Amino acid sequence: MGQGNPPLAAALARPTVGVADVLATLEAIGAALPPADGVARFNALYLAMTRAVDGAIRDARFEDPAFMARFDAVFADQYFEALRRDLTVPDTVSRSWRALIDRRGAPGVHPLQFALAGMNAHINYDLARTLVITTRELGGTVATGSPRHRDFLAINRVLAETEATVKSQFLDGVIATLDHALGPLDDRAALWSIARARDAAWTHGEVLWMLRDTPLATAYETTLDRTVSLVGAALLV
Fold first, then answer.
1. Separation of alpha carbons 153 and 147, rounded Å
2. In angstroms, what CA-CA distances link 5 with 76, 106, 127, 204?
3. Rounded Cα distance, 80 and 12, in Å
4. Predicted pLDDT at 180
């Protein structure tokens, strides 16, 4: 699909240095994809959440705003890189992202399922790796109870309201009239929580930080990728 979508390729060619770059790229991706595309459904949710984080940074709600701004950009670039790879070398896309990308046009999948599958890949797989990448770049360590960890937890609160609002928007419309179909989807939406996923991602990030520069780090990432892909596949059933 990618080679036949020059606007998407152009969007992904943008540099990702700060939050403003992330927002511009997310908006460009949204404009380049058909609205019903499963990746577009995730992109819409991610854009709303990035706007919320950007607002929190501007409002000085973090102890280490420079780290959080760079962290946000590095994190987003993991998603952008998955799309770049899908355009150029699809066989190298992580299993986590492949779960969504391979089903992005599947019939009978609700928009919320696509959005949650994308968040699953991005948080459960990308976030731990982003902690290590950004900490290497800016210095310091990945430690529970640190200012950066407190900022990480503060984002959970920033995202909570946005998550609830966007989920309700996805659940609006014709499916809301189908009580027999809505129950299972509601259950899936309730069971998959961004806050819980982010808490687990911090733990995975601590482990990857301790394992950095060892062969076990690659093995751990591979296992994590495989596990996350299984969750993604289940979310899209």
1. 10
2. 20, 19, 28, 35
3. 6
4. 38
